[in-house]
Amino acid sequence: METKEFNREEVSELKKLKWTIQDVGGLQIYRFIAWASSDPEIEKLFQKMRKAIYEEADQPKALRIGEEIKTRIMVNTQERMEKIQR
């Protein structure tokens, strides 16, 4: 994950709006993934991610949680494939 710091003068209202739209859009994708997976662990992770974005405004933390969700989905998929192959 690459981060870039900006001076206060470099951040326009348009940039803030763009970042907000990206954060909320990404969160909606994860909301759908949590709903579709029907895994309580993924739902808990999604709620943590939601809190990191909306309440803490901590995007790096939200990204780390997103990676945990991806890992959990891969593990679930692997387990399902093993069950099918048996």
Account of the protein in words:
The mean pLDDT is 85. With 86 residues, the chain is mostly helical. It is elongated. It has one domain. The N and C termini lie far apart (38 Å). α2 (40-54) runs antiparallel to α3. It has helices spanning 13-37, 40-54, 59-85. The longest helix has 27 residues, at 59-85. Helix content is 78%, strand content 0%. The protein is built from 3 helices and no strands.
Query: From the helix content, strand content and strand pairing, which structural class follows?
Result: mainly alpha
The portion of residues forming beta strands comes to under 5%
Question: Biggest β-sheet: count, sense, barrel?
Answer: none
Distance from first to last alpha carbon: 38 Å
Q: What is the total tally of β strands?
A: 0
Shape: elongated
Low-pLDDT parts are: none
pLDDT averaged residue by residue: 85
DSSP helix fraction: over 70%
User: What is the C-alpha radius of gyration, as a whole number of Å?
Assistant: 16 Å
Total DSSP helices:
3
